[in-house]
Amino acid sequence: MNKLKNSLQQLMKPFKNSPSKEELDEEELEKIAQQEQKLFPYETLVAATRDFHLTHKLGEGGFGPVYKGKLIDGREIAVKKLSHSSTQGEKEFKNEAKLLARVQHRNVVNLLGYCVHMEEKLLVYEYVFNESLDKLLFKTNRREELDWKRRYEIIAGIARGLLYLHEDSHNCIIHRDIKASNILLDDKWVPKIADFGMARLFPEDQTHVNTRVAGTNGYMAPEYVMHGHLSVKADVFSFGVLVLELISGQRNSSFDMHTDAQNLLEWAYKLYKKGRSLEIMDPTLASSAATELVAMCIQIGLLCVQGDPQLRPTMHRVVLMLSKKPGHMDEPTRPGLPGTRYRRSRRPSGLSSTVGTSGYRSDQSHTSESTSNTLTTTATTSATTPGVEPDRGKRPMLSEE
């Protein structure tokens, strides 16, 4: 027991900043680790990864390299190794270890444990067979592996995972970086939300918190980019972007379809208003798509990316919509572009639609639209520039795909 406690003290020693109110305190983490036996001996991980051999390397991010390994009991693992030169990684290491210590859900990647050995700091996860969603979705030679049934189940699984984080976990957790590269797919194609380095605990008695902006270009909600206003609706916005990417096979941040739309969200919205929403569908889905479900998911995606966060549905509402047959849903208002200001308004009463095979065509005008005042941001890997402060337009910390 003393050895366990000393190891955990060593784990926390490099992080001298006192934990914020949103984080679990160090004493609680020690108790969790003792109860759940989440400490891995360094020698075990060296043996599992063949001394972190290059052939076992899965990839590398701002945190550091990730290696595949196999434990003596046959379990396959993924080991995140903190880069010695990563200052941002130390904060993310501590944050991820604390937030995932008690998280258990089928659609959230499972943190098996931690390891600290001298200067080495490692996080140990379940290994997920099919890697990340972006490696299939945005590569033309692999996109056909994702037929409509799989894509629909991925959408529903991500929604359930976010619902768990927002409402059913020990505290409300806002992920802050929902995107295709942070969705892992297991051998049964079950999606798992990963990479909690930028996640935040959310105070129950607040509607939003003001925080430094951190996220990925193309997925961030406008109120978050412009003002640093963070709430669960920021994750809902990112989810909506991801839904439209899954249906279209197009990446929002590098959208180029030679249309008069500046991004995927605007393109999808304009076609939806013309009753032609199915035109955004990835051509590889033609033989497998259930057109009513596709149209419904497009409408759900557009509802999630509305400029006014108050009009976006909660993840509870999204899960309910996905679990029912296509029927009556609210009419989406104009999407908010990351970096745009939005004008709040009340949705007109009785404004709803019925999803059909070609979407819903309506000539009704909407009273909530985002303006065209756009803040242009440049994505940089592991940036450390200051976060956005209200109305000052400072550049946010962004990460690339």
TrEMBL record:
Annotated region (Disordered), positions in chain: 1-25, 322-401
Domain Protein kinase: start-end pairs: 52-337
Keywords assigned by UniProt, alphabetized: ATP-binding, Kinase, Nucleotide-binding, Transferase
Biased composition (Polar residues): 1-10, 350-362
A Pfam family matched in the record: PK_Tyr_Ser-Thr
Biased composition (Basic and acidic residues): 389-401
Gene Ontology terms, MF aspect: ATP binding; protein kinase activity
The keyword Cell membrane belongs to this UniProt entry's keyword annotation: no
InterPro entries hit by this protein: CR_Ser/Thr_kinase (IPR052059), Kinase-like_dom_sf (IPR011009), Prot_kinase_dom (IPR000719), Ser-Thr/Tyr_kinase_cat_dom (IPR001245), Ser/Thr_kinase_AS (IPR008271)
Biased amino acid composition, Low complexity: 365-385
Key word NAD present: no
Protein name: Protein kinase domain-containing protein
